[in-house]
Amino acid sequence: MTLDQWPSHVPARVRELARPSSQDLRDLVLRLTEIGFVPGEVVHIMATGLLGREPLAVRLGHTTFALRQREAQLVDVEALDAGVAGPGREWP
């Protein structure tokens, strides 16, 4: 499931990022990777915009980012195991 489809206030783990064919989307994936959206990281949608759920306020570590829906569609996430935030990672 992609991050834009994930429910708010439910932590998830980044599974992988998309491998798009267009250069514009590849640049977005690179940017997301550079700011920390990498496999294994825990993310949490803190809030969404009123119209169309955009932008998404996404918590990654101790930082909150505002993502557009098309950016969140590039991040594939999965459920966390019960009570586990991942190796070396804490969930606030």
Description of the structure:
It is built from 2 helices and 5 strands. It is of the alpha+beta class and 92 residues long. The protein has one domain: SH3 type barrels, CATH 2.30.30. Strand 2 (42-48) and strand 3 (56-60) form a beta hairpin. The longest helix is centred in the first third of the chain and has 12 residues, at 23-34. It is globular and about 30 Å long. The mean pLDDT is 90.
CATH topology: SH3 type barrels
Q: Give the helix tally.
A: 2
| Poorly predicted tracts of residues | none
Cα separation of the termini: 23 Å
Helix content: 10-25%
| Main structural class | alpha+beta
What would you report as the Rg, rounded to the nearest angstrom?
12 Å
C-alpha geometry: globular
- CATH superfamily, please? Ferrous iron transport protein A (FeoA)
CATH class: Mainly Beta
Biggest sheet record: 5 strands, antiparallel
Question: Total domains, how many?
Answer: 1
